[in-house]
Amino acid sequence: MWPAARRSRSRCSACRRRCASPTVPGSTCWWWGGRSRPGERSLVGPLALRTLESLAFDRFVMSIGGVHAEHGWSEFSLDDAAVKQAGLAQAATTIAVADATKLGVRAFSKVADLGAVDAFVTDAAADDPETHPGGPQTLRALRDAGVRVAMI
Fold this sequence. Notes:
alpha/beta, about 150 residues
């Protein structure tokens, strides 16, 4: 599903997540400056935004607070949403990751429309309407918007 390994520049949206690219020869994972949000360990604020706006990425990997069929990608924090918007604008490819509980969720601050993301990775339970009522409809909307969906 994913392109073959090649030299790339990747950016991850939260410090607690490790980029997979350092395990790929010739790839580099970059971290940027900013204020660390307590409990989240994500980097936000003017320094984070300025840094992101001055760089270009082959791949932007972002966690997300909510993904909704009608309202798109969203976050619970205005600061996190702003950083993710900046990352989206600077990336050739964007991959969103979230567990199935985030499907059908509309969080406080909109990040982007569904089609702004190239691929979405979630857990295999996402299409079970009994445990995740918003899952099947959201997955259909993602696919209709041209987003590649991987359930693992």
